[in-house]
Design goal:
alpha+beta, 59% helix, Glutaredoxin, 14% strand, elongated, three-stranded antiparallel beta sheet, five-stranded mixed beta sheet
C-alpha cells in the first residue's frame, strides 16, 4: 500500500507544480493579453492560485493527505463558480480551465472511499465524494461535499471579476483614417508584449492599407495594463494635433517603444519624451472619445489584445486575436483591397 500512496503523492505534487506553471505562464503569455480578470478580497486570482498549489505541495510532502483532499474539495467549489462565471460572460480562459482540470484530476487521484457510506440514497449522495475525520467531537466524519459547498459559497461572497476593459469618464475625433467598403478596427495595448511583438508587422500593413485607400482604419486602445490610460491620453492628444494617419502611426510607434522600455510611467516624463521626439500634442476633453472606445469594445466583445476586427460587409465581420491570426487577417484584407482596386480600375 505504501508504493501506491507514494505514487499518488508524487503525482499530486507534479500536478500542483503544473498549476503553478500555468499561472506563471498566464502572467507572461506571449500570445495575447487577456482582460479576463478576477480577485478574491482584493488579491489577484493568479496569486491565490499559486499560493493554493504551494499549500497542496507542502501538505503532500508531509503526507497530510486528508488536508490535501479538503483543500482540493474547497478548490472544486471555487472552480465550479469560476467556470460558471466564464460561461455566463461567454469569455473562456484556457489557463483558468486548465487549472480547474488540474484540481479535479488531483482530487480524483486522491479519492478514498468514505468511511461513512451507508445504503441510504441521501448518504450515498452526501458522502459520495469522500469524508475526513475531525478531532472534535472524536471520531466525527465530515463529508467533503460540504467543503465543496463552502468553497462555492466563499467565492460567491468574495469574488470580483471583470471581462471587458473600460475607460473611466475623463471633443475630439476618434482616431479613424481612410474610407471605403472595408473597415479595420485595431485593438491594442502599448504595454502588451504580444502587441509590441506584432506591431512590426501591423504598422507597415496599416500604412499600406491607408495609402491604397478603400479601407477605414480605427485605433482603439484597451486599458488592460494600469499605465495604458496615460499613454492613450497622449496618443489622442497627438492625433488631435497631427496632420493625418502618418503622424498617428508615428506617434503609435514612439509610444510602443517607450512602453516596451518601461522607463516612463508619469505624465511629465511622457510629455517630455514626446516633445524630444518631435511629436506635437494638444490636450482636450477625452470623454466623448472614451465613450466611443467603450462602445466599440462592448460591441465587438473584445477582452484581449492584440485583436483586429475586419468588416467586409454588414454580415461578414471577422475577428482575429493573437499575433498569428492578425498577421493572416491583415494579409487577407490587403489581398481583398488590391482585388477591389483592380475591379474599380476596370
Amino acid at each position: 500500500m505504501e508504493k501506491p500512496k507514494a505514487f499518488r503523492i508524487f503525482v499530486t505534487i507534479i500536478l500542483a507544480l503544473t498549476g503553478i506553471g500555468l499561472m506563471v505562464f498566464y502572467t507572461l503569455c506571449d500570445t495575447s493579453c487577456s482582460y479576463l480578470q478576477g480577485d478574491i478580497l482584493g488579491i489577484d486570482l493568479k496569486h491565490i492560485g499559486i499560493g493554493y498549489m504551494l499549500a497542496i505541495i507542502i501538505l503532500s510532502a508531509v503526507r497530510q493527505m486528508a488536508c490535501v483532499r479538503t483543500l482540493l474539495a474547497l478548490g472544486i467549489g471555487v472552480e465550479i463558480y469560476l467556470i460558471f462565471y466564464q460561461f455566463t460572460e461567454e469569455v473562456f480562459c484556457p489557463f483558468c480551465l486548465s487549472f480547474a482540470a488540474i484540481v479535479i484530476i488531483a482530487f480524483a487521484l486522491n479519492y478514498e472511499k468514505p468511511v461513512v457510506f451507508k445504503k441510504s440514497r441521501l448518504q450515498q449522495i452526501v458522502y459520495g465524494l469522500g469524508d475526513i475525520e475531525i478531532p472534535v467531537p472524536a471520531g466525527t466524519r465530515i463529508p467533503l461535499l460540504l467543503f465543496v459547498f463552502f468553497g462555492y459559497l466563499f467565492v460567491c461572497l468574495t469574488f470580483s471579476g471583470s471581462t471587458t476593459p473600460a475607460y473611466a469618464a475623463e471633443k475630439t475625433l476618434v482616431p479613424s483614417y481612410g474610407s471605403g467598403p472595408y473597415e479595420l478596427i485595431v485593438f491594442t495595448d502599448y504595454f502588451c508584449p504580444p502587441c509590441q511583438s506584432v506591431e512590426a508587422d501591423v504598422d507597415p500593413a496599416l500604412d499600406d492599407l491607408l495609402s491604397r485607400k478603400g479601407v477605414k482604419v480605427t485605433f482603439v486602445d484597451l486599458p488592460i495594463h494600469k499605465e495604458t490610460p496615460l499613454y492613450t491620453k497622449y496618443f489622442l492628444y497627438a492625433v488631435k494635433k497631427g496632420q493625418g494617419y502618418k503622424d498617428a502611426l508615428h506617434a503609435r510607434r514612439v509610444l510602443f517603444s517607450l512602453a516596451k522600455n518601461k522607463t516612463i510611467s508619469d505624465e511629465a516624463s511622457l510629455a517630455k519624451a514626446l516633445k524630444e521626439r518631435s511629436i506635437a500634442f494638444e490636450p482636450y476633453d477625452l470623454k466623448p472619445v472614451y465613450q466611443v472606445f467603450n462602445k466599440l469594445i462592448q460591441e465587438h466583445k473584445v477582452r484581449s489584445t492584440p485583436t483586429c476586427v475586419v468588416k467586409y460587409s454588414r454580415t461578414d465581420i471577422r475577428t482575429y486575436t493573437g499575433t498569428f491570426q492578425i498577421r493572416n487577417g491583415l494579409a487577407m484584407l490587403q489581398a481583398a483591397q488590391k482585388s477591389a482596386v483592380k475591379r474599380k480600375r476596370r
